[in-house]
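Moderator note: this is an archived Q&A kept for reference. The question asked for a predicted structure of one protein chain; the sequence and the answer are reproduced below.
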Amino acid sequence: MKERVVIPQEDIDRLFEKLNREAESNGYHLNPETDFTKGLVESLLVNEKRYGYWNCPCRLTSGDKQKDLDIICPCDYRDPDLTEFDACYCALYVSSRVVSGEIKAHSIVERRLPETERNKLQEKAVKAYGELSLPVWRCKVCGYLCARENPPEICPICKAKKDRFERFM
């Protein structure tokens, strides 16, 4: 059983405000149900203390950052989930339709494939595209593509860190 991690309220409030500013400045929205959203923010901080990274609060972590890169918040599935369901899997991020009250956030299906299936897709992409003169890197959060020797330190679109890029082609 995991030891209970207690996060000070001021840390939760500080991160909530930071995430809200960053989301709004990049065209995203946090869930307007503040108590619910702060609970998710607290879970991110608990996961950071336990594992060293912000694992999605609604998904089980492996405890191995490399295996969990796709579910580090903001996860790789956020944008497709917002497009299709108006909320990400844990409902931390929601669409403008949810913010305006036009619709309510609701439970959605899990789109994350099992690890074996994710590995097969990666192998298939390498076979399909072969080798190029420069590797193409894809931000797994927003889909930004760039061709260069190494991925950028920070995505110019969504501000995800270098470890959130994957070799695309």
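Archived answer notes: The first helix runs from residue 9 to 25.
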